[in-house]
Amino acid sequence: MKKKVSIFWFRRDLRLKDNVGLANALKGSSPVLPIFIFDPTILDQLEDKTDRRVDYIQQVLLDVNQQLEKKGASLRCFYTNPIQAFTQLLEHYAIDTVYCNNDYEPYAIKRDLEVKSFLEEQDVPFQSYKDQVIFEGSDILKQDGKPYTVFTPYSRKWIEKLNEKMLLPQEMNWERLLQIQAQRIITLNELGFNKTEIMYTAPVFDDSIIDSYEQYRDYPYLDQTTHLGIAFRFGTLSIREAVAFALDHNQTWLKELIWREFFMQILYHFPQVEQQSFKPKYDHIPWLNKEADFELWCSGNTGYPLVDAGMRQLNQTGFMHNRVRMLVASFLCKHLLIDWRWGEAYFAKKLDDFDLASNNGNWQWAAGSGCDAAPYFRIFNPNIQLKKFDKENLYVKKWVPEYGTDQYPSPMVDHDEARKRALAIYANALS
């Protein structure tokens, strides 16, 4: 007789604490076996096999497994496609139910529909829950039943609908975990990836940063941002805990959390934005798309110090300060007239905290093509941005040590000329 179990499938929720899907699995009648699937469909898209994100996930799984082992349980890992993983599980167990948390990216939605269909053919229910957001999908709609496409009214409605019960942490009944011998976690080497310098530590809220968030967040050298993007991306931090903390500490930081959900519901309702401009007429812009210009931007050799510092920080660390992200994106689209999709794809490769919805939403914001975007005629002046946010060049000198010497290149384009060219090309394409 096969042992009857329920399965909890970890995805973008890599924590035991306050995990909605896992809590519901632990309320069931069958002991719960937690699993994680390294999906080759996702991993094979990563060209650089020294990827901090894969290393981060592997380290988190080791940590989760250690916590489970203290409870007499263990995490079972797979490196195969999800259907094959569940086929293997069905050979060893009589599966009562498969539990997980919702994921809203187009690939994830397609994958989950396929898994649900496969499991239902085996008479196994598939239960998925809201966990990585406070409001999902169609939770927040306009009076006409359509999704919001402008942030300010969306955020007002979001705050209006929020209540304290939504932020209560989940109660976890650990007695329902399947008691098994410790299982080994798949190594980076087995996945075909290399070790990186990233070190996982459990994410925490830093009062000193969040309490004064709006005061210092725009100054990249001060580095007064939370660096919690990767924790939200992979769910090592509970969004309910984060929102509760924001409500007590800082409304500006709360707005950042709402922006995250705004872009997630945009991607959910308008999945075409993954490939196309939210405003279709922006796909008529005749981008110059010069490879040589793109390479100078990627390597941080544009001759604009704040742009170059940001790109070098990204290339070396997998992180870029948010104020600088806006500038480098505007520079690529407006000064160089390179398609925002090129920049979006580069960020997707390089950012440790890459999130499809936020990355796409912010790139389209910078290009003017997105919902609630910056008007196309708003073009950041890199020189003014430098004077406002790094006037002593401390951030620039950290990442561009040759700045101020003969080794630093002259600006690759003249700001005023590039601005006029962008305005003319945009206006003509959109008329």
Automatic annotation (TrEMBL):
Source taxon at top rank: Bacteria
Keywords assigned by UniProt, alphabetized: Chromophore, FAD, Flavoprotein
Keyword Endoplasmic reticulum attached: no
InterPro entries on file: Crypto/Photolyase_FAD-like_sf, Crypto/Photolyase_N_sf, Cryptochr/Photolyase_FAD-bd, Cryptochrome/DNA_photolyase_1, DNA_photolyase_1_CS_C, DNA_photolyase_N, Rossmann-like_a/b/a_fold
Residues covered by the Photolyase/cryptochrome alpha/beta domain: 4-134
SUPFAM superfamilies assigned: Cryptochrome/photolyase FAD-binding domain, Cryptochrome/photolyase, N-terminal domain
Cofactor list: FAD; (6R)-5,10-methylene-5,6,7,8-tetrahydrofolate
Family: Belongs to the DNA photolyase family.
The protein, known as: Deoxyribodipyrimidine photo-lyase
Source organism per UniProt: Sphingobacterium kyonggiense
